[in-house]
Specification:
single chain, about 325 residues, Rossmann fold, seven-stranded parallel beta sheet, three-stranded mixed beta sheet, Epimerase_deHydtase, NAD-dependent epimerase/dehydratase domain-containing protein, oxidoreductase, NAD(P)-bd_dom_sf, NAD(P)_dehydrat-like
């Protein structure tokens, strides 16, 4: 049986990826930061036997040797999906809060695999459109060939810290594979804003993943005065991102970078979909007359590699928003 190590198992993307891996017959060990998180994952899969799903605790992914024990396994691992990385807007110390966990977490697990898990054939790293976008001078069309030109110094500015952390971490991963020539090859998955159904063991709406927080805020009536600004004009459904991770270990030629996006959107589009699908929420929504802030000349995208190599068929924005709101309402929104 094919065995996979999935890091950061209680994260939004990882939780959907975990469900897909189990559906497709993989044996999964997931890393979590605490026993409580691990037990919650097991409780959410009560019919899965323990030889098919288990967890190991890695409290701090930025620590030296953090993954050394986690990558050791009997039977050994065939693949590693590394999704663990910080994404929030509470930046106190850019290096400690973001750069170290993102960069050291990524290089640390690659070092551990090379040293202790020679059976691993491929590592898939969750990167981001943040590592592709050039906010200072946008490309007309973004694709896998583009890299965010952010510098370390620029990344210390809190408005750039998250994007910088993803850029530096992904570059460090490709550099490692090129220089160290390990036993595995690498794939990276680079999504923009990730929307989609929240996982059923979400602890609370206040702890919701950062990208879904905008839909949660709209549904809960936090933006009644006006539609919040969109900021990034590309999006993708979490179920497609999860499938991209799984396909990246199923498809032999998938050892490469993948820009995974369903296309453009604006927050006005999201509000209009909610208004149409959930008319009972009308009194919580921003004014119907608010204009869209999606510029007519907004940057484009080329997602053809993800379609041709990984076989992705993307969810529509309507499908994603309707399903997301449904799960938010089930969780008390």
């Amino acid at each position: 049986m094919v065995k996979v190590l999935l890091t950061g198992g209680s994260g939004f993307i990882a939780a959907h990826t975990l469900d897909l891996l189990l559906e497709r017959g993989f044996d999964v060990v997931t890393t979590v930061r605490s026993e409580d998180k691990g037990e919650r994952i097991l409780a959410a899969h009560p019919n899965t036997p323990k030889e098919k799903l288990s967890y190991v605790i890695v409290e701090d992914i930025a620590e030296d040797g953090a993954f050394d024990e986690a990558v050791k396994s009997d039977p050994p691992f065939d693949f590693v999906l590394h999704t663990a990385s910080p994404f929030h807007h509470n930046v106190q110390d850019p290096v400690k809060d973001f750069f170290d966990p993102a960069i050291k977490g990524t290089t640390g697990i690659l070092k551990a695999i090379k040293a202790y898990a020679p059976s691993v054939k491929r590592v898939v790293v969750t990167s981001s459109f943040a590592a592709i976008i050039n906010p200072k001078s946008h490309e007309k069309v973004y694709s896998e060939k583009n890299w965010n030109p952010v510098t370390w110094e620029e990344g210390l500015d809190s408005s750039q810290t998250y994007r910088a952390s993803k850029t530096f971490a992904e570059k460090a991963a490709w550099d490692f594979v090129e220089k160290e020539k390990p036993n595995f090859d690498l794939a990276t998955i680079n999504p923009p804003l990730v929307l989609g159904p929240v996982v059923h063991y979400l602890s609370s709406l206040d702890a919701i993943n950062t990208s879904n927080a905008r839909i949660s805020g709209i549904v809960r009536g936090f933006d009644k005065e006006s539609t919040p600004p969109t900021v990034t004009y590309l999006w993708v459904d979490v179920r497609d991102v999860a499938l991209a991770h799984v396909r990246a270990i199923e498809v032999p030629e998938a050892g490469q970078r993948f820009f995974v996006t369903a296309g453009r959107y604006s927050n006005k589009d999201i509000v209009d979909i909610i208004r149409d699908a959930y008319p009972e929420l009308e009194d919580r929504l921003p004014p119907k007359s608010d204009p869209s802030d999606l510029p007519p000349d907004a940057y484009g995208y080329d997602n053809s590699r993800s379609i041709e190599v990984l076989g992705l068929k993307y969810h529509t924005l309507r499908e994603s928003v309707v399903d997301t709101v449904k799960t938010l309402l089930e969780n008390g929104a």
